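Handout, section B. The chain below has 121 residues.
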Amino acid sequence: KNKSKDEFLNYHEMNEGSMTAAMKFLQILLNSSFIAKQEYLPLIIGQMMQLTLHHGICKESCAALGYLSFLLCEFEDFKESYHTGQLAILLLEKLQSKELLPQVYLAYFAGAGSYIRGVKF
């Protein structure tokens, strides 16, 4: 698992302007969906992860991973949720995405972070 984590962290960065713009738009939708329409989260997260895997990592990939971590808790897959959340935080640090820190932490600690530490809301 550490190898796949390292491979993902060293994945090429997204450099296509249109794909970066799409990720920025999807990130805005992700924020709104988290608050108002969580039933859309799987669709938005799936699209963001698909763009990330096909075109490379970007700052918005951190948000997608953070919310994927939250979503995995819905399936009670707390172990993978925890690992995905940790990957989101590591990617955040690598890309120096300080502006997304609150968003990623919110998604992570609302999900896996609270379950792993035994805190339930």
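Note. Residues 2-116 form one domain. Compare this with the example in section A.
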